[in-house]
Amino acid sequence: MYDTAGSTSRSLLLKGALFSIFTVLLYLIAQRDYLVFHSFAELFSIVIACGIFMLAWNSRAFYDNNYLLFIGITYLFVAFFDTLHTLAYRGTGIFTSFDHNNLAPQLWLVARYLESIALLTAPLFFRRRLQITGVFLLAGAVSVLALWSIFWARNFPDCFISGLGLTPFKCTSEYLIVLILAAALALLYREKAHFEPNVLRLLTLSISCTIITELFFTIYTDLYGVFNFVGHIFKILSFGFMYKAIIETALRQPYSLLFRELKQSEETLRQKEESLLLAQRLAHMGSWEWNLHDNSMWWSDEMYALFDYDKQQTTACLERIFERVHPDDMPAVQQATAAYLQEKQPLKFSHRIIQRDGSVHHLQVEFNRPRRDQRGTALLAVGIVHDITDQVQAAKMREDIELITHHDLKTPLNPVIGIPEILLMDANLTPEQTELIQMIKTCGYRILNIIDSSLSLYKMEQGTYTLTTTSCNLLQLIHEIARGSEQQLTRKQLKLTCLIKGAPAGPDDLFMVPCEELLCYTMLSNLISNAVEASPPGADITVSCEQDALWSSITIHNQGAVPVEIRASFFDRYVTHGKQKGTGLGTYSALLAARTHHGDISMTTSEEGGTFSLRCACRTTLKQHSPPRSIPCNPVTRISSLSVPVRPDWEPPFSSPARHPVFRS
What we know:
The protein is an alpha+beta fold and about 675 residues long. It contains 20 helices and 19 strands.
């Protein structure tokens, strides 16, 4: 096996040996002519700094790497001050009116401050937008100020004094630069996710060598001394690592630096595409695109699986879809497709297909809004296909189980319905006894209808429920609900008041609405029961009935506020709060019942309490103080303060098992 670790070690040893030889040669040059060595060391860093700027600047249109661009711009100014530092070094004889022992260290400090602050600040631009003009202006302003202070005003603090050596200002500045570089190193590692490991390692070595350089430049006493020489050697190393981290990496492995974010985006996109394909496969859902210009199509892998085609041997097109559509569903599918092409609006429908093995599958097809060009012309239709065979089969099984359950539940109800019929034949019953037995009988038939209608909720959800209306007095239903809630009303000392057009309902008032009586009873029972449960003890509950030319409305107000946690989802399925046995289906089923009657329910709440507003889009016959002519009314019976007529001889329209048409499917 190839020894990768051993090969890497030998490579490092070889590079270390070559650099040692190179360092010895530089030392010999410095011993003979230090100015030549110094010029070489500085020009090496200047060339690399300018190279970083040219690379970052000229490739900025092809990548989104603010870190590299910021480093490139600031290193241009670093190269400028390093150039001045080289020209001002002792022995060059260029700036003759200045103290060369002091001028070169002053320019050195400005360059190192710029470099260290640039390395500290650059990682911040991974999360911030880079203002290129602002960076140039700021760096330019700092440079002009430094040049003015050094060359014109000559008030820049001294850094080196002949005979004394480095000044406290110079040493303190070098230590401050070391701290800035250490912070830059820490920040670099905090943002290490933005770097390839090799680039991060090289940047770390570059900054570390710069720190060592600055430390050596706090202890030298001679501009040509050994500590100055060692400091420049580490500066060469620092810029050499920077060269390998940025320039070499950008040229040899551009995706590791310049286009790293693009590479990461492509990798992320690939992973998301794989996740999407996996999700489609698990959900039995395929996606497609249909070019409306040339009639070509694109299918996802799951589309081929859903329609039982081999991807390698099948061209995606509309004809292949029609080949699998069930013959009985073909007219509806063609009609839906034609409607989409004409209206260009979102569309959803279901149909069956027959696969090659003869099995029948149910599919749900969804057309999304087509994509258009600038002129508004539809170009591309997109959508999904979902295999709902399991759901259809589950719904069929649910219906079968419901039929069996209905049969088993009806048997215990026979005595509940039959015995009151026998008891009512007794002529010696008091009016109160007759009323109570009649209520048992009515409740028995109502439970029977509820059992028969347990599938109605599902049908209302699917929009397949058939509404059968009769003329119904909603005041009578409210009275029955109040009688059923009498125990709770009494226990909590609640007062339930029914109003018609703002006035208390009288014993002879009617609120006739064409509706399904049992459906309305269930809807009002859920809403009133909710109001009773939410009301604090001793509170008032008000049920107000109103009507106009278009709407019949009932408003139920109680003094209990709806909890904040469920206000936004109050009418959603399974939403409940503070009820140990609550199912969260009461208000949800009430909303479905209202919408089945072409109406709606809304809820408002405040510190004063909660209010349900029910509206049904049907004409209402509302009469006040006008007794029914066909059925005489008994004297008013009061429950709390609810005043509605009580009629012991009232018979529900579903008074026998053979006549309960309400909730007919």
